[in-house]
Amino acid sequence: MENACRKIPDFFKPYRPEYSSQRMRVPRAFLAQLDGPLPGEILLRHRMGRQWHVKVTLEAQDAYFEDGWQEFVRENLVETNDYMVFSYQSPGVFRVVIYGHSACEKKECALPGEVGEGSEVQEHDSDDDDEDYNEEEEDEGRSKRSKKEGNVEERKAANEDPTNVKRYIDLKNPYFVTVVQALRSSCLYVPRSVLIDYELKLPQAVLFHDPTGRTWRGTVKVWTDRRTWITGWGALCRHNNLKINDRCICELLEENGVTGRIIKVHIVGGNST
């Protein structure tokens, strides 16, 4: 007899940190295809052979992937607006294919322990133990700007930007917004689109400036897949008492003709707003 699971249609979800960084809601239309509720724990399998155990939480008519979901997102390097396609292969087992900004399948995974490694030196405090944080980036007002475009972009930021970026920075400077989502990474991820839009090549050594004037050294690391991370971020998060869902605007400033050598961090929702 043919496995009934094969008749169940796939479903897809776009990844948006504000909705699905902590947990992901399963579409009700998919749940309606099942003979019963999802089990309390399911397996998510990547095409490269890795798998993740994820707890399922039921709330009224909805089901959520919860405990273990953040690890799946982090280790699969899921970014804002990536598309995830879930195929129900057998009871409690999903095969997941992830499509990136290029519209092609993303095949890479982070190795266990790879995300979050990195040391930092806080220049005003010798106690620089890591406080692990993970950040999810949002595409907020990152388009390359010319002088003629400045006024248009400022109006756009004022009308559409929930973070109210123009309150904190000079909109002529490159910037991106990062959101603290989970306590598991001491590195800051720099969205590739920011580097492309502004035609930037970050120096190997950078300096974080927080709102109180404290500074931290950071080291830029570029992976083989061209993803860019900066160490030193975890200490800044700890010393500023950042919490999950706090937003930070990272403004890339020029020093000695090099843009990005200084990263001025504006905290939105932390204790330094």
TrEMBL record:
Gene Ontology molecular function: any one: DNA binding
Domain of life the protein comes from: Eukaryota
InterPro entries from the UniProt entry: B3_DNA-bd, DNA-bd_pseudobarrel_sf, Plant_B3_domain
Record-linked Gene3D superfamilies: DNA-binding pseudobarrel domain (2.40.330.10)
Ranges for region Disordered: 114-159
Compartmental location: Nucleus
Any Gene Ontology CC annotation: nucleus
Keywords of this entry: DNA-binding, Nucleus, Transcription, Transcription regulation
Ranges of residues in domain TF-B3: 9-102, 173-271
Biased composition (Basic and acidic residues): 148-159
PANTHER family: B3 DOMAIN-CONTAINING, B3 DOMAIN-CONTAINING PROTEIN OS03G0621600-RELATED
Positions with biased composition (Acidic residues): 125-140
Name of protein: TF-B3 domain-containing protein
